[in-house]
Amino acid sequence: MVHNMDRQLQSLDGRLIALGGCCCEIIESAAQTLHDQGDTQIQKVFELDERIDHQAMEIQQYCMYLMLMRTPVASDLRSVTAAMHMAQDMERIGDQAADLTQIVRFVDVQAFTGATNILQMAEKTTDMVRLAMDSYLYNDAAKAQAVIQMDDEVDALFTRVRQELIDLIARDTQQAASCMDFLMIAKYFERIGDHAQNIADWVLYVLQGELPARDDTRQK
């Protein structure tokens, strides 16, 4: 029974790593649409989102099976619980990458004066997702902590973009509609950063036995 549980946890680990690979790919592809708004690049994001949805659902169902039929305890229970939550966060990363890409189709990112900050958000959140998955793959608490610290940088960039948009609307109210589009793009990147942080939190839970403390104002 113990050996069988070990094999099932290895299977779960492999599934989660594969899902993480898709998440890294979709955020990279979504970030690329800021430079290349061609239909091929955009369609790639939507196809990846469908694959992520399917894989995440399978992982969550597998976790439920392990919980109900194998009743894992101690570190095994932590691993299954964390996997279930990480799969949910990865599914949300896929959704938000697809949502922001849907908006990118209809805007001229390069024409926005605050585009540099949005591009930086795209780059940092891409790095966060990749680093969060590395922290899981290599059981690396230091990488997980680095992801958590990077989230503050993404939040600061979002605040900067939001203020730039407020100032732009104040100068020219006719820009309000496009400003809202840019704000939503930035917000989706900010939320992707939050989910990457959540993944890092769950990695630390597996490694250290508890979730990192969060102030009420920083609940995700």
Number of domains: 1
Report the C-alpha radius of gyration, rounded: 19 Å
Instruction: Kindly state the number of beta strands.
Output: 0
Enter the CATH topology name.
Methane Monooxygenase Hydroxylase, Chain G, domain 1
N-end to C-end Cα span: 37 Å
Give the ordered list of helices and strands. HHHHHH
Please give a handful of descriptors for the protein shown.
mainly alpha; Methane Monooxygenase Hydroxylase, Chain G, domain 1; elongated; 220 residues
SSE topology:
Elements lengths: L1 H31 L6 H32 L3 H31 L10 H23 L3 H31 L4 H33 L12
Helix pairs in contact: 1-2, 1-3, 1-4, 2-3, 3-6, 4-5, 4-6, 5-6
Write a brief structural summary.
The protein is an all-alpha fold. The chain has helices at residues 2-32, 39-70, 74-104, 115-137, 141-171, 176-208.
Describe this structure in words.
With 220 residues, this protein is mainly alpha-helical. The chain has one domain: Methane Monooxygenase Hydroxylase, Chain G, domain 1 (Up-down Bundle). 82% of the residues lie in helices and 0% in strands. The chain contains six helices and no strands. The chain has helices at 2-32, 39-70, 74-104, 115-137, 141-171, 176-208. Helix 1 (2-32) runs antiparallel to helix 4. Residues 216-220 have low confidence and may be disordered.
